[in-house]
Amino acid sequence: MIQLLLAxxxxxxxGDVGLDDHDRPLDDRGRRDAPAMARTxxxxxxRPAVLLSSSAVRARETAAVFANAFxxxxxxxxxxxxAPPDRLLEAARASGADEVMVVAHDPGMSxxxxxxxxREERMATCAxxxxxxxxxxxxxxxxxxxxxxxxxxx
Length: 154
Hints:
With about 150 residues, the chain is of the alpha/beta class.
């Protein structure tokens, strides 16, 4: 079984206009949404073995909440910052795990979710798309439709 969780980071703070995009933290809503989404995923029975995160502060903060909920370590990958869909998918494949969560950014997240779901999907902040291939391997991902697809939004 392959399970791929694609999470867009929680809502970030735009209050400091002088702050570099990479360094923006979560805002109050983001700090509320991330733990709520982690609980939703736990109730759904989702549990990634590997958690990959963009190096941006808002993604790392979001990933830390998920990591705490799932009792997994976060592997920070700078190449996931504003990554296109193929780079996001390759990072998940390269992890070597069958249950992988990737925390990153739009527009790459929405594009990859839309591609795998075979329909247009917009990833709101802190949304998590869960794709499952029951009898599949990573070779099946992006080659065959998933057996299950769920989109969780805050």
